[in-house]
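Purpose: get a first structural picture of the assembly so the mutagenesis plan has something to point at.
Setup: two entries, given in the order below. No constraints added.
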Amino acid sequence: MGFPTVMAVLNSFAPVWTKGFQGFTLDYYARLLRDPIFWNSITKTMYFVGATVALHLGLGFAVALALNTEIRARRFFRVTAILPWTLPDIIAGLVWAWMYDPLSGIVNDFLHRIGAISSPVEWLANPGLVMPSVILADAWRGYPFVMLVLLAGLQAIPKQLYEAAKVDGASWFQELWHITLPNLKRMIVIATILDIIWQTRRFGLVWVMTQGGPARSTEILSVLAYKNYFKFFNFEYASAMSVAMAVFLLVVGIPYVRMIVRRA
Amino acid sequence: MRGRRARAFTYVFLTAVLVFNLIPFYWMLVTSFKTDAEAYAIPPTWWPLQPTLYEGYGKVLMWTNFPRHFLNSVIVSLGAALLSTVVGAFAGYGFSRFQFRGRTSLMAVLLASQMLPGVLLVGPYFKMLARVGLYNTYTGLILAFSTLTLPFSAWMLKGFIDTVPHELDEAALIDGCSRVHAFLRVVFPLITPGMVATLIFAFLLAWGDLLWVLCLTSTDSMATVTLGLSRLVTQFRVIWPQLMAGSVIAAFPPMILYLLLQNYLVKGLTGGAVKE
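Result (structure tokens, whole complex):
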């Protein structure tokens, strides 16, 4: 793993493979900074990662809270809530792409039946709709992991804390704010960091749904870097791009590494 | 009356979530039993009018390369899982039992390597494998996947080995066992559940991957299920019943394995941040 990393970093500074070593250059990074396609993909990545992580956290937290109460059929609800995450992301992408099918898909049919739309919506072909559609599909697949982590955290909070709060007459919201959230902080941080890392690297789901299109409206960094490597064979340029991505991920990941290592 | 109303609200919310969770599965299953013509009906049918096994499952198993892709997935995922678990067990033993200089930093580096994006590594891997003649081979894919899963395996197994008291292997050493023997005879049997869990996780990681097989194989006979299915969808005309039938089959192994192992996974990734 070390060797390929070194090679990639080296390659982003000098065309080692294609032309042989001829000294270092910053040309590729300079080109990156001037490239509107690169900046477009940074924007798309931020949009995609920001929205999916927020949805995973929101939905994951809400479902975890609901599953942490005394209800019947808790196991059943729990197992079904994990199911989406067990699908490989490309299969989730395939199924959603098919659900979004304009003419024979279930989404348009449902919206048509309840009278919300009168003509078919092109979810994945309309540049304005495609990103939210992909995000919804990813939110569906990704939230159960956050839910599992937060549920584990919730179950570890001592029950006495809540009983004491009840005696003091605390409201549901006060309990949430003063007991649940502070005690869950650590798990929220870990889940958020891991999710940001995974979502930034997400490739398969977006690839099978849109391949970055239409008109680059879902061309996130991993898709753009892949295209540069294996479609256009711009190895040096793609390396520079992935190094930029790696630096971002490492910066995000450092707190996680520190938290885990300190514990071990 | 906060209790009753809150409970009713919880049920309503969970039922809504349940529907949201299951609809894609429902659509996948229903489509896989439809005929090709019915899948393209406008408006779509919510229940197959003439349920058929042949059009979806039959054709995908007999007319396409799907069985081969499935077999490839099994070989590659299993190979990578075995390799990374065995190597990871030795690495984990080293991290757990020896105090050496730079141990903590090495562990941190190992963990940080998990953050690297696949697109960074896959290019150099492509070049390396091509140079040594392992491009488009099982061995090449297994090696590539093992390096991906090894850091996680080593970390997880270190956690499991930590739970085995070190007096046990020290006693074996005093009885004249070598380190390797002490590990294999004493520690190894005690961490079997951990080994199985690690094995399955590495397997799942390799099973779900698309980027690496896309970049490290060239022929259809080397493709895995994920690659095979993704190629079907980029074709000019997508035959959805076949594609959904293939997806159902390909989704089955990971689904079972994840459900068996959900608790281990949370522990492994959060480093036991939850109090037991």
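The mean pLDDT of chain B is 85.
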